[in-house]
Design goal:
elongated, Fun_TF, DNA-binding, DNA-binding transcription factor activity, RNA polymerase II-specific, two-stranded antiparallel sheet, 3 domains, mainly alpha, transcription cis-regulatory region binding, 548 residues, nucleus
């Protein structure tokens, strides 16, 4: 009866459980193992329980649903064959099942396909896509161009890394949803690669450029009732592409810029904007347009855009003393550049009228008292800005990331643009010769400030020095100054690879040779008078073309 009262063992030693006999669970050796001389050990056995898979509810569901199939994960090893997932037997996606099709582009009457689009097809052996590429619908060549745009082209267009990030965060998501902007960005990247001397198919470049123009033309033929930021971005991208293309499209940049002005002006006509009310994308596009339009006023005798009302509208949105990180100068210089352009046009008109009455007048003379008074007022205002100690102001997200090197370079760049304004007033309005001490003082200041700046392998103020260098080069007649400008332009071209840097240097060499050949040491012939014969561009960001 004693044996029958003993409870059944559930945690006996391994030997007793294996032989299915009772164990008294004595430690460290039970009586049965001691009697037979076997090794006695105890271990914890885990039991997962549950019914067999085929008898489970999940297995029963799978068995009754014919639409569910067993999809192997891999077939390279015996272990991997046993691994599987369950999916629908219809419409399964296979990485090998991606079919690439192309968008036809009509070029010279022939149908040329180049931009791939992908669609899915069903495959007999469905496979799971591991680590899918979000850009697998783009050809490898175009993925490479897109990567070049984000890493290199935007760096050469930005005075600071925050601006470069702004370009990428606004344009790339927008481009992935709008084909016309994507093609324009690819065209810009391809053009930049050519300027850098990197390998690039010219046929592909021409196709991209033609396609972007055709697609933009089609969109503009059917205008939308509201402003499409993607179309504005496409227009500005095409404008920049023409700027850095080394004069291959010498006049089309202004058409793109005026097109952007028309769209923005129409949009802002009945809307009150403030810096806080702007969306992130609108803020970048507005500043981008504003910097291009403002500095285009410095490129010679070019009339103000018919949509000039756009400029003060945008200017009022931003703080006047805040540095525009796209252009490198404060917004307060914008009205000064506009006033200089108007005075230059008035002064030239007066000179032309004088020649009509007296054809023997070959040298420009001092303009009338009204123009001189307004010019002197602008000169006093600029000198006041130069002599008043101040720290450049920036947007908060830029200011918090500036290094001491960047701050000093921005301060130097700001001063060079003030001297560019002075050179414009001295030469284009007052008609002073290049040898004037006032002119040469500004030339020396520009060279000195830029020599103190740093040309870094990153987005930095050094990308925006082409306009000041060109302005100083047009008035430089001393050999030392010309050599300094040659060296600085060479550093810019090597570092950032913009084709318009090469164009600027070519024009300066031609201007210097012409002055030397004619013994024009004083530089009485103005650069903007010669510029009409050489339709080049000379700014990587701050648009300036030699326009006829």
């Amino acid at each position: 009866m004693e044996a029958s009262q003993k409870r059944r063992s559930r945690s006996g030693c391994t030997e007793c459980r294996t032989r299915h006999r009772k164990c008294d669970e004595a430690r460290s050796r039970c009586s049965s193992c001691a009697r037979t001389g076997n090794k006695c050990s105890y271990e914890v056995r885990l039991s997962w329980g549950g019914r067999p898979f085929q008898k489970s509810r999940f297995g029963d569901c799978l068995r009754k649903d014919p639409g569910l199939t067993r999809v192997p994960v891999a077939s390279s090893s015996a272990a991997s064959r046993r691994a599987f997932v369950y999916g629908s037997g219809t419409g399964a996606v296979s990485q090998q099942g991606l079919l690439q099709e192309t968008v036809p582009v009509h070029l010279d009457g022939k149908e040329t396909s180049f931009l791939p689009v992908t669609e899915f097809r069903t495959s007999g052996e469905n496979q799971i896509i591991r680590n899918p590429d979000p850009l697998n619908w783009l050809r490898p060549a175009y993925r490479s161009l897109l990567d070049h745009f984000t890493s290199s082209t935007t760096r050469a267009l930005s005075c600071h890394k925050v601006v470069q990030q702004d370009f990428c965060s606004v344009l790339i998501p927008m481009a992935l949803q709008t084909r016309h902007l994507l093609v324009a960005i690819l065209s810009l990247a391809a053009t930049h690669r050519v300027s850098l001397g990197l390998e690039q198919s010219w046929t592909e470049l021409e196709l991209l450029k033609t396609s972007s123009l055709n697609q933009l033309r089609t969109l503009l033929a059917h205008p939308k009732p509201h402003l499409d930021y993607a179309i504005v971005a496409t227009t500005l991208t095409l404008c920049i592409t023409d700027v850095v293309s080394h004069g291959r499209s010498p006049h089309s940049w202004r058409l793109h810029l005026q097109g952007a002005a028309a769209m923005i002006s129409e949009h802002m006509k009945n809307i009150d904007y403030s810096a806080d009310s702007l969306s992130f994308a609108a803020s970048l596009l507005w500043r981008w347009y504003f910097s291009l339009e403002t500095v285009s006023l410095l490129c010679g005798n070019i009339a103000v855009s018919p949509k000039a009302a756009t400029r003060p509208q945008i200017r009022d949105i931003f703080e006047p003393d805040e540095i525009d990180e796209l252009a490198g100068f404060p917004f307060s210089l914008a009205p000064i550049f506009s006033a200089i352009s108007r005075l230059a046009v008035e002064s030239d008109c007066e000179q032309e009228q004088s020649r009509i009455y007296d054809p023997h007048i070959f040298q420009d003379k001092l303009p009338n008292n009204s123009i001189v008074a307004r010019c002197n007022q602008l000169i006093s205002e600029i000198h006041s800005k130069l002599t008043t100690p101040h720290q450049p102001r920036f947007r908060p997200d830029v200011d918090s990331t500036l290094t001491s090197v960047h701050r000093s370079d921005f301060a130097a760049l700001e001063q060079t643009y003030h001297h560019v304004a002075l050179l414009q007033l001295y030469r284009r309005v007052l008609n002073l010769p290049s040898s004037s001490p006032l002119v040469q003082t500004s030339v020396a200041q520009i060279i000195q400030r830029i020599l103190s700046m740093h040309f870094l392998d990153e987005a930095c103020p050094g990308v925006a020095v082409l306009q000041p260098l060109f302005s100083a080069g047009c008035e430089a007649y001393q050999i030392e100054d010309r050599e300094s400008i040659r060296g600085l332009l060479g550093r810019m071209e090597t570092r950032y690879g913009m084709g318009n840097v090469r164009s600027a240097r070519a024009f300066l060499e031609e201007l210097w040779s012409m002055r030397d050949a004619n013994s024009d040491e004083e530089g009485t012939v103005r650069w903007d008078k010669v510029m009409g014969k050489c339709p080049f561009c000379f700014s990587p960001l701050d648009l300036s073309f030699f326009e006829s």
